[in-house]
Amino acid sequence: MKSFTQLKGLTVPLMRANVDTDAIIPKQFLKSIKRSGFGVNLFDEWRYKDAGFPGQDPNSREPNPDFVLNEPRYKGAQVLIAGENFGCGSSREHAVWALDDYGFRSVIAPGFADIFNNNSFKSGLLPIVLDKAIVEKLAEECASTEGYQLDIDLEAQTVTTPNGDVYPFEVDEFRKHCLLNGFDDIELTLQQRFRIEEYEAKRRESAPWLFG
Amino acid sequence: MAGKTLYDKVWDAHVVNQQEDGTVLLYIDRHLVHEVTSPQAFEGLKLAGRKPWRLSSMLAVADHNVPTTDRANGISDPVSRLQVETLDANCEAFGVVEFKMNDLRQGIVHVIGPEQGATLPGMTVVCGDSHTSTHGAFGALAFGIGTSEVEHVMATQTLLQKKSRNMLISVDGEVGPGVTAKDIVLAIIGKIGTAGGNGCTLEFGGEAIRALSMEGRMSVCNMAIEAGARAGMIAVDDTTIDYLKGRPFAPSGETWDMAVAAWRELKSDDDAEFDEVVRLDASLIEPQVSWGTSPEMVTSVNGVVPDPAADEYAAKREGFTRALEYMDLQASTPVTDIQLDRVFIGSCTNSRIEDLRAAAAVIKDRKVADTIKQAMVVPGSGLVKKQAEAEGLDKLFVNAGFEWREPGCSMCLAMNADRLEPGERCASTSNRNFEGRQGQGGRTHLVSPAMAAAAAIAGHFVDVRHF
User: Fold this and answer.
1) Given the DSSP bridges, would you call strands A166-168 and A158-160 parallel, antiparallel or unpaired?
2) Rounded CA gap, A158 and A177, in Å?
3) From start to end of B173-315, where are the E strands?
4) CA atoms B11, B13, B19, B25: torsion sign
5) Phi, psi dihedral angles at A20 (to 5 degrees)
6) Are B38 and B60 in contact (CB under 8 A)?
7) Fewer Cβ neighbours under 10 Å: the N or C end of chain B?
């Protein structure tokens, strides 16, 4: 897995509540059997005026100039500031892959849907939860300051604004450890192979119907 | 010490190891697989030279991309076809049991699991699909996972998890006639909100839940995720056990007796403590209709579209305004004045035999309104379809002007050819009314099967209790 340690990145605000995974990456793009190439269709229905479908030439699309990601000042953004319950809806990890493929490394919001939150850590995208009032303040600062960059330090668990305000955030200790080191979860788990085998052997005795 | 909740019991029984920080290695009993979220996981296994840990835990089916007409001609969309063929090839290569597209047992993954008895009480059940919560109806701990976790389960039979909080949703008393499981769950989501269950496992309890059939319970648990909870559970009782007896993947003989004895314990202890408790009075629940672009934006069929300018909606004004604009609805419009273009009866929420019977019972000998462009019924599985045909429901639907389709996810998420055109408005028995969910620019209203059937005949929403 891709590691995340520290990042100073151009930031873009998208302050809608309940941004769902259908909005992040519409279903027609989930037909891909690959893990990459989703960035061009991130927020497809909001980002383009024409209908999107797999295999389109991106240069033939008509961008929606009113959508925030299409504003030239946000080109190359790596940090997304979002509204409450970001990533609700389906379990599609494609939503995380689309954000990652577009260039985002972190999303800051007052809260995330559970599955999206899980998926983010698995793909090296850091979800940061901050108080709603702080998130709104950051979004306002970002909107009113061209070239606004947030400095995110995972080790220190802080977000620092261009004017030096520092906001600490919580992160699960184990997930932090995995993300800092870019550990492969499967490899880590297989180090406990004997434990899984032991559990399974006991369980086969006590609940054989589970192994039919 | 306080007793255990149902969730505590199933969780505790699956802990392989617990780290100091509380992260648990959780054993997974059943892994359901479909074509959309598995190809990258299978590829990951291949690249790492790994094999599935326990093949007998896996059951695969293609459902999201499959056409609901003309199956004999295969899948015409080459991108959808490749995804389904990739699942077939992966299942063959790794030895995973799969119900292929033309197998009578094929259907929506959350319909076929229970139908086959592949979902059993006390199991941990996962699938790369958020509506895996459906299987919690059996007293299983069932939740959706992303593709990285799909690969993790394939490779290790476990997941790294932190325990959620316990939330009890008690629906007390009895619902009135014509009020269904779908109305109950929509009312719950309307009450607690789409993020209300974030970080929680829900247990649905109370007389109104216990009175539901297994199919009704599945509709309720199916939408736990729409309340933000990855998992929803219901205690095991005779209804659960009667449903499972004799199903192909369920145990039999002595093992059945042994299993039933264990399953009887799968309920929260009387002195169990929940982190949160929410109560609803079942007698106050009316048939529900969603009006907006989130499942929490729901009201009674006798209600009106809310006015975002009202003081009570101050905190949600922006979202409500945006939703009404997308839905092309005016504030204060009576729900029964909303005219429809299409009707969809199907999805993992409402495509089981009882759902089809309920819809058929409303139709009687009436016809779909002329103003409805299309009304379709998509059974949840080949076996549901067969049963419905044995009961003559297909003829009843077709005579009324409905299309009778092959099983799959269909217009719930429009990954196949079934979708809304921009601006079209649909009464749908599915689970999500997000922007573009049923097709770009499409407008979805979530309802029960009976309400959808009544709307098809009237051309607009009507209170099915007086129809």
Assistant:
1) antiparallel
2) 15
3) 200-205, 231-233, 276-281, 288-290, 298-300
4) negative
5) -95, 165
6) yes
7) N
C-alpha span between B161 and B282 (Å, rounded): 34
Give the integer Cα–Cα distance in Å for B423 and B341: 9
Q: What is the pLDDT of residues A42-79, one digit of tens each?
A: 999 999 999 999 999 989 999 999 999 999 999 999 99
Asked if A189's CB is within 8 angstroms of B56's CB, the reply is no
Residue keyed to tokens 């119907």: A209
Shortest distance between the Cα of B95 and any Cα of chain A, in A, equals: 16
Q: Which of B129, B198, B422 sits opposite A114 (nearest CB)?
A: B198
| CB spacing of B195 vs A113 below 8 angstroms | yes
Residue B1 pLDDT exceeds 80:
no
- pLDDT recorded at residue A2: 87
- Chain A partners of B37 at a C-beta cutoff of 8 Å? 30, 91-93
Angle at CA of residue A88, ends A120 and B415, nearest 5°? 95
Looking at the DSSP assignment, which residues form a beta bridge with residue B144?
A: B127
Give the separation between CA B80 and CA B72, rounded to whole angstroms.
16
Sheet holding A6-14, edge to edge: A126-129, A106-109, A79-82, A6-14, A149-153, A158-160, A166-168
Among A144-153, B216-225, B313-322, B401-410, which is the least confidently predicted range? B313-322
Residue A76's Cβ-count burial label (10 Å; 0-12, 13-18, 19+) is: exposed
The verdict on pTM exceeding 0.90 is: yes
Dist. CA B191–CA B212, nearest whole Å: 20
Among the partner-chain residues A31, A88, A196, the one whose CB lies closest to the CB of B83 is A31
CB contact under 8 A, A26 and B436: yes
